[in-house]
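[INFO] parsing input record for 3'(2'),5'-bisphosphate nucleotidase
[DEBUG] input buffer:
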Amino acid sequence: MAYETELAIAQKAVMAAAQLCETVRRDMVPEAMEKQDKSPVTVADYGSQAIICKALSEAFPGDPVVGEEDAAELKQPEMRDRLQQVTQFVKGVMGTVTPEDVTQWIDHGNGTPAKRFWTLDPIDGTKGFLRGDQYAIALALIEDGDLKVGILGCPALDLGYGSTGLLFTAVRGEGTYMQPIAGGDAKQVKVVQPGDAERLRFVESVEASHGNQSEQEAVAKAVGITQASVRMDSQAKYGAVAAGEAALYLRLPSPKYPDYREKIWDHAAGAIVVEEAGGKVTDMYGKPLDFYSAAKMNDNRGVVVSNGTIHAEVMSALQAS
Ligand SMILES: Nc1ncnc2c1ncn2[C@@H]1O[C@H](COP(=O)(O)OS(=O)(=O)O)[C@@H](OP(=O)(O)O)[C@H]1O
Ligand SMILES: [Mg+2]
Ligand SMILES: [Mg+2]
Ligand SMILES: [Mg+2]
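[DEBUG] output buffer:
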């Protein structure tokens, strides 16, 4: 098996981060702090990034990590109490740590793309996390311009498998596996097979401003999907497609933010999880997503994730609209 060590270390780190996130949701009503771009961040986003970056920096000191968060704001004197809070939660999972350790680990995620690097979203779907809905912890390894390993932890996802909290893992060429996030047997998953009318569903974001819901509905209809969309926060949507619970995930550019560019950490782990389950991931023009040039996918617009068999049809519907 390829990337055995990478997968083992990354999976353990994501599981530990998931434990921290669920502890935060259980022990307090997480408050949103506002970042400079006005988007929310919580103590759990910071704690999750600290735990995962620590593990990666120790196991693979030469690998940069391109993470969503950095500790600049947390290091401000007026944020002392917040930093103390983050440190307490990290301690709860890992034992003795100092606030300086925590900010240093978080800032390990300030790397830039290289020949080999990781990309991390410590909490994807922070708004979902705050609402008590879906969120994901998303980590992927990119090497020589391609996704090689993806770990997608979805602590609140169920999909009717009997245990809440699912972990998806994928290694290039070796399939996608799903297991309870608390630990347990992994089983291989596959995307929706042609003819499975019941699972011919589509998923999209909860936040209307992260996509174009009316256009997404029109495209889904055009390819024969008659059921209403299932709205779900975070890359848990990729998990739903990989596990064959939905055939399509549409994320078309929001008319409100025409200049928005998708970030690699919002899609990398999900993309390899879906591809290795037999699905296809491109932008709205059918171009492969560029996970290796920069943190922002400057040359891609929108994201289309499918079971593969309906992808060409979706592209035609998009062209026509
Ligand atoms: N305008 C716009 N268009 C597209 N995407 C955007 C936009 N603004 C923000 N974001 C990113 O959306 C990430 C969350 O996406 P979701 O699919 O989980 O959305 S939702 O939570 O269901 O609403 C969210 O990731 P997190 O910050 O990790 O939560 C953002 O990176
Ligand atoms: Mg965010
Ligand atoms: Mg995100
Ligand atoms: Mg995030």
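[INFO] The first helix runs from residue 4 to 27.
[INFO] shutting down worker
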